[in-house]
Design a protein that fits this description.
With 416 residues, the chain is of the alpha/beta class. The protein folds into two domains: 90-316, Type I PLP-dependent aspartate aminotransferase-like (Major domain) (Aspartate Aminotransferase, domain 2), CATH 3.40.640.10; 322-413, Aspartate Aminotransferase, domain 1 (Alpha-Beta Complex), CATH 3.90.1150. The chain has 13 helices and 13 strands. It has helices at residues 6-14, 37-44, 66-82, 86-104, 117-125, 145-153, 173-179, 202-211, 231-234, 303-319, 321-341, 368-377, 399-413; strands at residues 54-55, 111-114, 136-140, 160-164, 184-190, 215-219, 238-242, 254-258, 345-346, 359-362, 380-381, 383-385, 388-391. Helix 1 runs parallel beside helix 3 (66-82), helix 3 packs antiparallel against helix 10 and helix 5 (117-125) packs parallel to helix 6 (145-153). It is globular. The model is unreliable at 8-17 (pLDDT under 50).
């Protein structure tokens, strides 16, 4: 890392933790509209990887920014300088929660941390019994595997799981209407689907589910950071996202929003000491759930990932999800048009208003991994899902990057 930061050299000599969080000077960051390509070029300099490659695999992992790296190094410096700095480190976990709350229109005490979306779903599933005798979970055939398996794992406790079928990569309200009934305790869906990029219209689904007495949980992993999300306006009961994709963080941290009125009723069986009102009482003979959404937390939180998570979300909140959404629509139009111009089969919605960042290209059976490898050799990062090659840009991606990607895909598939 090139040695300690100036702050931590001073702290190492003093042997004392800091009294203020590690902050950035927002005035040093680019300002202006993302419709101005000069502003986009300024932002691209924040991500060193973009100097060497085209990164459109953000549906799997976002590129590292200078600010995120500095934040992680600050944690590592703190560790080596102070040795054990738990008050400060846990304070950063709280600040990361607050940044996520800002992103989705929640309050910080309505947010819990977890280590992954799969773990977050398991925590929620373990608390459903408090909401009555209903035992059916309605989800879809298009959900991400890890989350879907969390619901299936709870069948051993008497729950049944029904899957609403995706049709040509899309979900339809009338299909949910046939599955959600007076036996349904939870309707679990994605906001943007990881395979096709289809964006589900949440408002009418939430209305339908609530009218039938079902709670609603939303997987926002592929939408958070690319479009505005307002959990209060949507009326969702739970919403979760990790941070390594469009929120520009690293693996190991996820957040769960819980509607305030539900929090006192949650008594999860997947529980740990950080889910207690005072974790440091260290009692072993009882449960004393925390008053806020933190009651869904389990063990020691991933501190280093929290430094990265807050830093990444600071970038997203600074740029603005609404501005990013407009940029993503532009890039989606370019992706769809260029793919079709080159004769590629697009498996994502033609209407860019019905999709997120992901544009899925159908690849002949058995060819997708070779295609991803060859693209990487040509300086392009993508990521597959089944038979689909997924092209997933972010606000710093240029239209000409998308044009190059689609040309290279067509070239490789055509044997050039």
């Amino acid at each position: 890392m090139g040695g300690l930061t100036a702050m931590n050299r001073e702290r190492a000599g003093a042997g004392a933790p800091p009294h203020a969080p590690w902050e950035w000077n927002a005035s040093e960051w680019p300002s202006g509209s993302l419709t101005d390509e000069r502003v986009v070029e300024e932002w691209r300099r924040e991500f060193p990887l973009l100097e060497r490659v085209i990164h459109v695999g953000i549906c799997s992992q976002g590129p590292q920014s200078r600010w995120v790296r500095q934040s992680v190094e600050h944690y590592l410096d703190s560790w080596v300088a102070v040795g054990m700095d738990w008050d400060y480190w846990l304070g950063e976990v709280g600040r990361a929660k607050a940044e996520f709350a800002k992103l989705v229109g929640a309050e910080p005490d309505e947010v819990a941390v977890s280590t992954s979306l799969s773990a977050a779903a398991a925590s929620v599933a373990s608390a459903l019994e408090a909401f009555g005798s209903r035992r059916k979970i309605v989800t879809t055939t298009a959900e991400f595997t890890g989350v879907a398996q969390a619901w299936l794992g709870h069948r051993k406790y008497g729950y049944t799981v029904e899957h609403v079928p995706a049709r040509a990569g899309e979900l339809h309200l009338e299909d949910f209407d046939r599955h959600i009934d007076d036996k349904t305790i939870l309707t679990a869906v994605s906001h943007v689907y990881h395979s096709s990029g289809f964006k589900l219209d949440l408002a009418p689904l939430v209305k339908l589910a609530h009218e039938r007495g079902s709670l609603v949980m939303v997987d926002a992993y592929q939408s958070a950071g690319t479009m505005p999300i307002d959990v209060k306006a949507l009326g969702v009961d739970f919403l979760a996202s990790g941070t390594l994709k469009f929120l520009l963080g690293m693996p190991g941290m996820a957040f769960i929003y819980v509607a305030r009125e539900l929090i006192p009723r949650l008594d999860p069986a997947v529980v740990g000491w950080f889910g207690q009102e005072d974790p440091f009482e260290c009692f072993v003979d009882r449960l004393d759930y925390a008053r806020g959404a933190r009651r869904l937390e389990t063990g020691t939180p991933p501190v280093m990932a929290a430094f990265a998570a807050r830093a990444g979300m600071q970038i997203i909140n600074h740029v603005g999800p609404a501005a990013i959404a407009k940029r993503i629509e532009l890039l989606s139009r370019v992706a769809t048009e260029e793919a079709r111009r080159h004769g590629l089969k697009v498996a994502s919605p033609a209407d860019v208003r019905k999709k997120g960042s992901i544009t899925a290209i159908e690849v002949p059976e058995g060819g997708v991994h070779g295609l991803v490898t060859e693209l990487r050799r040509r300086g392009i990062i993508t990521f597959p899902c089944g038979r689909y090659l997924r092209v997933a840009p972010h606000f710093f991606t240029r239209p000409e990057d998308i044009e190059r990607v689609m040309w290279e895909v067509a070239s490789i598939l055509g044997g050039r």
